[in-house]
Amino acid sequence: MGKEYSASPKLHQLESKRKRLTWILAVSGLCILSYLLGAWNTKTPTPSTQSEVYTRVGCKDEGSPSATSGGRGGDGSSVELPSSVLDFESHHQLVVNSSEETQQFPPCDFAYSEYTPCQDPNRGRKFDRNMLKYRERHCPSKEELLRCLIPAPPNYKSPFKWPQSRDYAWYGNIPHKELSIEKAVQNWIQVEGDRFRFPGGGTMFPRGADAYIDDIADLIPLTSGNIRTAIDTGCGVASWGAYLLQRDIIAMSFAPRDTHEAQVWFALERGVPAMIGIMASKRLPYPSRAFDMAHCSRCLIPWHQYGGMYLAEVDRVLRPGGYWILSGPPIRWKKYWRGWERTEEDLKQEQDAIEDVARRLCWKKLIEKGDLAIWQKPINQIECVQSQKTPNICKSDNADAAWYTNMENCITPLPEVGSSDEVAGGALEKWPDRAFAIPPRINSGSMPGITVEKFREDNEMWKDRVTHYKRIISALQQGHYRNVMDMNAYLGGFAAALLKYPVWVMNVVPASSDRNTLGIIYERGFIGTYQDWCEAFSTYPRTYDLIHAGGVFSLYQDRCDITYILLEMDRILRPEGTVIFRDVVEILVKIKSITDGMKWKSQIMDHESGPFNPEKILLAVKSYWTGEAKQEQN
């Protein structure tokens, strides 16, 4: 804290608020007076709404943008702050920071370069190994939190641009060759000089992920637009998800942080959606009825154990009529049992047990052909209830609750229907119409306070916002961003407005939010997760190019120290990555005072509608810097 606060903090805060209020009233009065005089002289019609005043009042500059490129990494690109924008500071004489108040955050020790706070292997070893609970999220205590900046490796470069990044990554960014050795025969990853190459191979698809997906497409309709969202359990380097993207299917891939070093990290470095995660004792952090398709290719999840609880969890997140695809043990055990080093009896028992669990879930087995077996979830539960005298339906009333929520070994109840051919919860439009069609959760009125009109207004608002972002961040149009995160996604409007750009968006709905809207986001054909921003996100360092934080800090300012949220954002943001904050001035000033000590360059700007909107924008860019690996002593 600065010296000026030490004498009388309450008096200082009151004086600061008084000055800000005086400033707002003065500027507002001058601008409105100027506008009204001009309107009187020119007989301009009087504005009828507040937003019209914001737009028409002549107190803003028409900014023309310019983030230049020229600097680092694989493609020689960097991102800078725009030189001419709707600039808050040029209009309002408010001191937003002073060197006296800024705390400088030092780099962490280089040993933390790959730190994943809530999936730290050292901390995990202290927890129960039963059901792999030790690999679940176990976040540091307040005393263990780091107040330093996670360093990038010395040879870090900007990742390859999409779509080249699907096939290549710089070795210096993730200096791990373990997978290239351990999975050499399976063609997961190869080292070629200073880079990795991803041939698209996998344990159960030696001909490559593309050919494997073609085999699936021969069995279920992958290209009709009915299948848009998918989940890949135990994803490896996410080649399945990578090659689905060209078919307009987006997969949420997850795998634990385990002996397959950095597999999720490689996926994200490739520009493919992925998270650190595991099937253990807690529900997956996704809502019910989220995915059109679920996939396991030798994922080693014991589907038949614990009474079939893991398949019941797949059933929870699978949309009515959705598909579950299984390849690898025990499928086609008669051919592979020797190579899998298991007995025929053991594998047969496992497959029989899986088939039994699927029947109890009322799934229909569509086909088993070659290395693939595919089941389909029913579109409603009418026949299931009729065919089973006492189906094991869950008693809990919130199927979407999934943040540190225990798994249940029962069938998640579906919304009621009026006939056997009606889709529970409502049928979805085909992709891409699905992105802007009214989501069934809104259409049915099951989301209090969110109407069809509000949904449409939200889409229009985000269209305007992204048009503005395009003006102030030229890197958005130049392909510098691939992995995007919306920290407070609400209805997924940001992701929808970015559809024409070569990006994907991780839509985050805060677990403490009053409205659980993540199900709506999935119904639109986008992906996302729940998250409490007082904790670290389930990802590796340096995995996102652009982060949007609208209203996040107003939501969390009284729940935890926002410094740690900003340090977590720094951890997951790539060097020269960009953050867009939207909040009231007081919050943005506080954020800027912290990020100025984090090697970030930032600038507060007016709202796109003009200076009278109380919400402002803080645009920040993380500086490029790297750590230094310690030299080994002879």
Give the terminus-to-terminus CA distance. Answer: 44 Å
What form results from the Cα inertia axes? globular
Spatial strand sequence of the major β-sheet: 6-5-4-7-8-10-9
Rounded to an integer, what's the Rg over CA atoms? 26 Å
Largest sheet: 7 strands, mixed
What's the short version?
Helices cover 28% and strands 16% of the residues. It is α/β, with parallel strands linked by helices and 634 residues long.
Question: Can you tell me about this structure?
Answer:
It is a single chain. The protein has 634 residues and is α/β, with parallel strands linked by helices. The radius of gyration is 26 Å and the shape is globular. Helix content is 28%, strand content 16%. It is built from 20 helices and 17 strands. The relative contact order is 0.13.
Keywords:
20 helices, disordered N terminus, alpha/beta, 634 residues
Topology (SSEs and partners):
Blueprint: H1 4-7, H2 9-42, H3 50-56, H4 88-91, H5 121-124, E1 168-170, H6 178-182, E2 190-192, E3 195-197, H7 209-217, E4 229-233, H8 239-244, E5 250-255, H9 263-269, E6 274-276, E7 291-297, H10 309-317, E8 318-327, H11 333-336, H12 344-360, E9 364-369, E10 372-376, H13 382-387, H14 440-443, H15 452-472, E11 483-486, H16 493-497, E12 504-510, H17 518-523, E13 527-531, E14 544-550, H18 552-556, H19 562-572, E15 573-584, H20 585-595, E16 600-605, E17 615-622
